[in-house]
Write a structure and sequence with these properties.
This protein is of the alpha/beta class. The protein has five helices and seven strands.
Length: 175
Amino acid sequence: MEAPGTRGQKVTVVSEDSVTSRAVGAYLQSVLTDLGYDAALQSISGDIQFTYIQNSNNKVQISVTQWYQDYPAPSNFLHVLFGCDSFTTGSDSSVNMSGFCDKSLDHRMKAAMRLAVTDELAAHQEWGRIDRDMMKLAPVVPLFTPKHIDLISKRVGNYQFSSRYRWLLSNSWVK
């Protein structure tokens, strides 16, 4: 899809300098080129890529990155990544990398966090609506949600999985 007057515009995709991120970045570059943009890929060391893309002074147009939950709650994605308070101009630690701030959605996210204390089901339903409304505005394009798979031997006992910590190794034993 081409926006009026954007054909031929220079666009740089920033990715971490890893095989997977470079491959995703190269794919995005090829799609943008096919759409008529003058697209380039800039791969940056993983040591600095995340802070680089967070800093609005670097004027990153498109980046390939990932976000994993710190705790199992919708707010750990939506509010952290798109809350108005999560954006700080010119900061290497502005986790709202898109600079997105919608005051109405921000208000709804804060209300959903308060609601979760007394009515978790209602809060989850509201987070679903917030997610839908957020994605209509497209501050990001989620590509995939990775699945974590543990392959274990029959000799492993007391396997336990936590949505926060994954495999609880300290609770397991091996025959």
